[in-house]
Design brief:
alpha/beta; Rossmann fold; 2 domains; two-stranded antiparallel sheet; 7 strands; globular; disordered N terminus
Length: about 200
């Protein structure tokens, strides 16, 4: 028992370290260590962490459209993207994605789609139809649990980056920032055109 109690402070330090790296401002802590004489006691509470936003982090405030036919995947992606400050739209199909923006929904800044959707739809078809409906070249990438080399070739042929499931949060955030930065570099800012 003594060995597990002595590991508690380093575990909490590790969680706090990763929470700040992932830009969470508050994390619930099931067990916070405090020393009372020679014994550790556990208390419930919340630890307030400092948030240092990196100047190169472009995801905060961006609208991200996530398309996947698995509702659990949509819920998970919504949760992580919202924790980073994104505004998230989700859809279970291409038709649902197009309907959400056609019904007065805001244009997404980025699209993430599962490669294989229900009813034979592919991410490539859905993204192209969505871009056409929006009239804008919205940056997009594809996620797939299928590890066959044909999937990588299929995504590459369509000009899309493919991430293999499961996708780590760090890889997801890096990909979001890379695509947003690349898109902003190619798109003239509204201020530059005013003159």
């Amino acid at each position: 028992m003594r060995g597990s109690a002595s590991a508690l402070p380093s575990l909490i330090g590790s969680v706090a370290y990763w929470a700040t790296r992932c830009n969470w401002s508050r994390i619930p802590v099931a067990a916070r260590a405090s020393r009372s004489r020679s014994r550790w006691r556990r208390t419930r509470g919340t630890v307030q962490l400092p948030v240092a936003l990196d100047a190169t982090d472009l995801v905060r405030g961006k609208r991200v459209m996530v398309i996947d036919d698995d509702v659990l995947v949509l819920d998970g992606m919504r949760g992580i993207l919202q924790s980073w400050g994104c505004r998230v739209q989700t859809a279970v199909s291409g038709a649902a994605a197009i309907a959400s923006v056609a019904d007065g929904g805001a244009q997404p800044d980025l699209i993430i789609s599962d490669l294989r959707l229900a009813d034979g739809e592919t991410a490539i078809e859905v993204i192209e139809r969505l871009r056409e409906a929006l009239g804008a070249p919205v940056p997009a990438f594809v996620i797939s649990g299928d590890t066959a080399p044909e999937r990588l070739r299929e995504a590459s042929a369509g000009g899309y980056h493919l991430l293999q499931k499961p996708v780590s949060p760090m890889t997801l955030r890096t990909t979001l920032n890379r695509l947003l930065k690349s898109h902003e570099a190619r798109t003239p800012s509204p201020r530059a055109s005013v003159g």
